[in-house]
Amino acid sequence: MKKLAIFCASVLLLCSGCASKPITQEPEETAAPTETELPENASYDPDSNTVYIFPTTETPEETVIPDSLEIDAGATSLDVLQYEVFADRAVITDFTGTDTEIVVTSHIGSYPVTEIGHYAFEAAWDVTSITLPDSVTTISEQAFADCESLTSVNIPEEVTFIGRGAFSNCISLTELTIPASVTDTQEEMLTGCAVQDLYILNPQLDYHSWGLEDAETKCTIHALPGSKILAWAEENGFPTEEIS
């Protein structure tokens, strides 16, 4: 019995020693990515089994010197409208004058003016009206932001894109028409605006956080029957009117 007791004690001692040791597992090996799985700006180091991502930068578009500075008769002078000209178009980039009524030219020399650039008329407080040419297809981010005296601006029927905050804080702008050509808009387009009558002519244009929901007074949405914007307006308690 004494020998059996010693043997059992030895077994217990061995087992308790085993229980105190952590059990480790070898990490699973990860298969090396193939070339088709890696983005263009990445490389794989097989020694460290690491994928390195490198920052990418787009090559800036080169500007060109226009063949002439001829503009539309009656258009606002290029002395107060700054611009950039590229291979196939011109962009209005800034307004530096004191004019209150702006008429943007449709071309600079042989280059069509297709874009109102980022912040181009931002904080042009005294401007009351802006007339854009049919050549414009893009109204960029905050292009007319903080134009506090602006009461009249047209969006040409060739415009397809209106950027973030384009008309934000236009506190004197009470009516605006977004033509059927516009298919893409960004958030805060009308944040802080005084728009009371908003005409949306593209029945497929979705509401995209334009800022109307934050207005003290809900504007009237005018749109074609069956328009997505009408459905949104009705769901959110905005007055609506079907147009033909």
Tags for this entry?
four-stranded parallel beta sheet, Leucine-rich repeat, LRR (right-handed beta-alpha superhelix), 2 helices, alpha/beta, seven-stranded mixed beta sheet, 16 strands, about 240 residues
How would you sum up this structure, described in words?
- The structure is a single chain.
- The protein has a domain at 81-242: Leucine-rich repeat, LRR (right-handed beta-alpha superhelix), CATH 3.80.10.10.
- It has helices at 2-19, 228-235; strands at residues 42-45, 50-53, 81-85, 90-95, 101-103, 107-108, 111-116, 129-131, 138-139, 152-153, 161-162, 175-178, 184-185, 197-200, 220-223, 240-242.
- The strands form 4 sheets. Strands 3, 4, 6, 7, 9, 11 and 13 form a 7-stranded mixed β-sheet that branches.
- The protein contains 2 helices and 16 strands.
- By secondary structure, it is an alpha/beta fold.
- The model is unreliable at 1-23 (pLDDT under 50).
